[in-house]
């Protein structure tokens, strides 16, 4: 395995900007592992903890799915009074929220334990951004927000784990919509050549409530909610950005945020990955 580690740095002279840099710390980790192996204990504790979390979340998910499923069946019943149908709707909403929390905890504990394998496949970044935007458009529209995508025409396909990048981008986007009351949410896509590889940068800008300078440091930490009172009102697990950070870390990329309280935020990530063709080349005909 390869290990990455992030460090947080204030951008010099820019009090409101936080940069998360990721470094390959495989060598150091290997050394540490050898040490813990020698001690035999610490590693066991980590494995037991993530096993426990995985089992527990699984045990929670099964009955939750039953609740969601049967609430759906009930909702379809024609004999329900209007009031009962509303209550069944509330059961559905609450259990879906709980399922999201459980899934986040499971995902986070897997990522934390290094148990998530990336699956790099050719994908079209523009298509990925467009489908994420389409998913979030309804929520943005309901709040009267303008949602726009700015991307160059000549973005090339790349080889990376698109579902995991989608997860990060959707997280940025849903936060942007959640914490913005008026104005716009803009996704800016940039792609450059970086040596042999391609560099992809995606930034989500919003005109929302922003994050206070002293709270910026914590936003990529687990269970961090910049403003407890505000966040409680909006819901959420406080795990989304911590999960996003782990994903980008595992890809060896960078993730960061620039934010001004009362003016808005810009959440971005950058990854380096091979550029490629989308359609695999057709097998060459035998000249003979
Ligand atoms: P949550 O589930 O609470 O949204 P996240 O990890 O996604 O968890 O975000 C952590 C916290 O960072 C949020 O609760 C919020 O306080 C802050 N935050 C994230 N994105 C934004 C944004 N676009 N604008 C303002 N605050 C944000």
TrEMBL record:
BP GO terms, sorted: regulation of DNA-templated transcription
Transferase keyword on record: yes
Keywords (A to Z) from UniProt: Coiled coil, Kinase, Membrane, Phosphoprotein, Transferase, Transmembrane, Transmembrane helix, Two-component regulatory system
Gene Ontology molecular functions: phosphorelay sensor kinase activity
Positions of the Histidine kinase domain: 55-275
Domain PAC intervals: 1-37
Name of the protein this chain belongs to: histidine kinase
Species this protein is from: Caulobacter henricii
């Amino acid at each position: 395995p390869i290990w990455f580690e992030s460090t947080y740095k204030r951008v010099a002279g820019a009090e409101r900007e936080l940069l998360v840099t990721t470094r390959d710390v495989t060598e150091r980790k290997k050394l540490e592992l050898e040490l813990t192996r020698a001690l035999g204990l610490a590693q066991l504790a980590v494995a037991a903890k993530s096993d426990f979390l995985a089992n527990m979340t699984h045990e929670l998910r099964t009955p939750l799915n039953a609740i969601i499923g049967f609430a759906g069946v009930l909702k379809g019943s024609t004999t329900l009074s209007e009031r009962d149908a509303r209550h069944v709707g509330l059961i559905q909403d609450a259990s879906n929220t709980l399922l999201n929390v459980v899934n986040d905890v499971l995902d986070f504990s897997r990522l934390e334990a290094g148990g998530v394998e990336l699956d790099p496949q050719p994908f079209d970044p523009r298509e990925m951004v467009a489908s994420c935007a389409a998913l979030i458009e309804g929520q943005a529209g309901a709040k009267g927000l303008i949602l726009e995508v700015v991307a160059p025409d000549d973005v090339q396909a790349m080889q990376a784990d698109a579902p995991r990048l989608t997860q990060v981008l959707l997280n940025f986007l849903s936060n942007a919509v959640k914490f913005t009351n008026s104005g716009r949410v803009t996704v800016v896509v940039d792609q450059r050549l970086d040596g042999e590889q391609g560099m992809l940068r995606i930034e989500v800008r919003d005109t929302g409530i922003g994050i206070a300078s002293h709270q910026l440091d914590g936003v990529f930490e687990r269970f961090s909610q910049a403003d407890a009172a505000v966040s409680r009102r909006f819901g959420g697990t406080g795990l989304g950005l911590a999960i996003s950070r782990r994903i980008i870390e595992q890809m060896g990329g960078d993730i960061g945020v620039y934010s001004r309280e009362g003016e808005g935020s810009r959440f971005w990530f950058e990854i380096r990955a091979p550029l490629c063709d989308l359609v695999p080349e057709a097998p060459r005909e035998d000249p003979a």
